């Protein structure tokens, strides 16, 4: 039978556990809510920062630093960076700078925690809650979220501390001895704790409290810090699963950067520890601020040490994760807006060269769409869709460049060339859309178990081969300004139109004879319609060559 005294002790342990976990939950909620409030107040500009302010590794570091301070999550910054690399909006080299900056930015939270601001938790919650629930202005609601998140962060710290305070009566000497003698144990604890909580700030926050209560000595605390630095990379690794090769490389850069930094500081552990102790004495730092300083010094120094080796890191991950056979060779759109003011002719030349790259993507994508139709192998469809994304990216940037050029005075010939390039850009972009439509149709057939007859499949295949030939000749004529080849395109397109009319008549006969179902009819009509449209766009390209 359990005594009342035993029950009382059990409940006390439960209360402590719940208070600690509740405080931790409130702390994590505060970080998340604070970040959301900051994001909402800044609007869509945050997402564009990563794309527009990373022209070189220096600005990349500053962007990662600024962005992480703003959203209060290095993991979120890194995951977004991996996503932008996956979407080919950032190069791998740009991503490395952002990841380095994020590692510095994440220390901002630990410095906030280092200040004894727990007393401000409840007032901030009250003011933030008032703004969120009683103020109608969207701007002030965002401010309320920021204040509420900050209050939750501070009050969560206070709750966590209150929850574990009674445990001070326990003897933590054995834990300290283990961590002092076995630093790898501290690294393992920091790594696993951060992986579990998916927040390096939470791990460091708990560490600051334990260090403040003298539960852990500096040796052990620094070892846990090393582990936290490794554990925080797990979020980026998870985000890169199933992503492009470059996105996986970005995640691997994050892992390598943090692991190499840990190894360097582990080797120079004694001088590192001496520096922290000297600063703590000189500046009379509180224990929590001492850990914040150790964390900040570690991350800033790691960036300074490894920044000159960005190219080497990029080379290493490129060698470790090689392009597979079906990875699209992405290219930077080389359009220098500075030349718009100096030379319209050279600006048009740049736009034309990038348009030819875009056209090559459409040609290769259509070839893969044909292979997907013939084999039903997903790798062909996946790569074709990558080409379609590249076509859209080139379309956006070339069109934007040409629109900016249009406000400048152009000669008659330049104006004609400008109009032609704008029209061709849309023609090629539409080829990509029709290519995507055909892939979607093949996927629709697979999902709904629609099987075409051998004769129909052969008809489709023949029409695709003819359309592919038409597009390839049109692009070749554009590259070489070959008017004879452009005339051939017009002739081939006539054959495509004739084939489309023949197949439509044949299909109507099949419907009348009950040889085709409704779903098969949709596939049939859409398929040949998309091919006929690609032929039309090929003619537009050829006519542009003939009119030059």
From TrEMBL:
MF-aspect GO terms: sodium:phosphate symporter activity
Domain of life: Bacteria
GO CC terms: plasma membrane
Pfam families: Na_Pi_cotrans, PhoU
Residues that span the membrane, as ranges: 16-35, 61-83, 95-113, 119-135, 147-164, 184-207, 219-244, 250-270, 291-317
Subcellular location: Cell membrane
Membrane topology: Multi-pass membrane protein
Domain PhoU, residue spans: 355-441, 462-545
GO biological process: sodium-dependent phosphate transport
Major localisation: membrane
Keyword Aminoacyl-tRNA synthetase annotated: no
InterPro entries: Na/Pi_transpt, NaPi_cotrn-rel/YqeW-like, PhoU-like_sf, PhoU_dom
Alphabetized UniProt keyword annotations: Cell membrane, Coiled coil, Membrane, Transmembrane, Transmembrane helix
Coiled coil: 468-502
Name of the protein: Sodium-dependent phosphate transporter
Species this protein is from: Fictibacillus enclensis
